[in-house]
Amino acid sequence: MEKQIEAYIDENLDGAAKAVATEFVSFLREIGIEFYKDNCPCWRDKIYYWLKCGDACVGFLAIKDPEEPQNLWTVWCDDGNTDWAKTHGMDDALIRIGHASIDYCGFCGACGGGRTRVILGRSFDNVCNCTFRFDNPKERDLPFMMRMVEIRKNDILNGQGGLA
User: CB under 8 Å, gap of 24 or more: what pairs does 34-41 form?
Assistant: First the structure.
């Protein structure tokens, strides 16, 4: 039986990082998000999970990626076809967290490079296909991260989310 993400969190994180990761993963399980550990050659020796709703990707979670030793854990949002130009009923505090968490293109090769996007009512240049990235998320980031997942899941379930 493959080790569950909770075991990786328990083994690799402590203190506030462990508490926030545990709360986020518990939330994901409560709303039916599935965890798929990616064991392809690129990720085989890493703790890297796809967060999925059915066959569609909601986001990604990595724990202690050796290529990014400054990050204990990272969460990305999968872009799919979600219209991030809308505010999705978020208040100003959540929108500020979203704007502060834009994932700018790092030219990883997964796409043709960053693009200009309107995200939560504001225009940004050079945005990655993942849209949002949280390195070492804090408790204050959880409300936005949870809302981000709810929005993606809703889009997927309503046929707007694209396939992984």
Answer: 35/4, 35/5, 35/61, 37/2, 37/5
Condensed to tens digits (0 to 9), the pLDDT of residues 15-52 reads 999 999 999 999 999 999 999 988 777 777 789 899 99
Alpha helix (H) ranges present in the chain? 5-12, 15-30, 92-100, 142-157
Evaluate whether residue 133 is within a structural domain: yes
How far is it, in rounded angstroms, from Cα 94 to Cα 100?
Answer: 10
Per DSSP (E only), the strands in the chain are 34-37, 47-53, 56-63, 73-77, 102-104, 115-119, 122-135
Q: Total structural domains in the chain?
A: 1
Which two structure tokens, joined as six digits, stand for 34? 């599935």
Its domain, for residue 32, covers 5-157
> What is the pTM for the complete model shown?
0.89
* Sign, CA torsion 122/50/144/159: positive
Please state the length of the chain: 164
